[in-house]
Amino acid sequence: MADVTDVLDKTGARTDEAADVITGARDRVDALDDRIIGLVRERMAVSAVIQKARIESGGRRVNLSREMEVLGRYRDALGKPGTSLAMTLLELCRGRI
């Protein structure tokens, strides 16, 4: 019974069935988070290539009009929280300005 109680406590569920659903869904969320982290790292690498090419050609490190496009895209897709997410991604990819 200790195992069942531990699983129920860990998931916040009140039934074994709900605990099973929650455990499976959490595993899926963890897998999705791993993919998202991988994609963010890939985005950071691609952004570094863009910045390097822009700087080497005599341009600026940051293209503000492009950043506004990115912010709008995330806002349109995800609402107001999308703007915050995009700002975080932009900061990760180009650093603070």
Account of the 3D structure:
By secondary structure, the protein is mainly α. Helix content is 84%, strand content 0%. The protein is built from 4 helices and no strands. The chain has helices at 2-11, 16-56, 64-78, 80-94. α1 (2-11) crosses α2, α2 (16-56) packs across α4 and α3 (64-78) packs antiparallel against α4 (80-94). The mean pLDDT is 92.
Please, how many helices? 4
Biggest β-sheet: count, sense, barrel? none
Chain oligomer state: single chain
**How far is the N terminus from the C terminus?**
55 Å
Give the helix proportion (percent range): over 70%
Number of strands: 0
Strand content: under 5%
Shape: elongated
What average pLDDT do the residues reach? 92
Order of helices and strands: HHHH
Concise structural overview:
The protein has 97 residues and is mainly α. It contains four helices and no strands. Helix 1 packs across helix 2 (16-56) and helix 3 packs antiparallel against helix 4 (80-94).
What's the topology here?
Elements: H1 2-11, H2 16-56, H3 64-78, H4 80-94
Helix pairs in contact: 1-2, 2-4, 3-4
Considering the chains and any ligands shown, give keywords for the structure:
elongated; mainly alpha; 97 residues
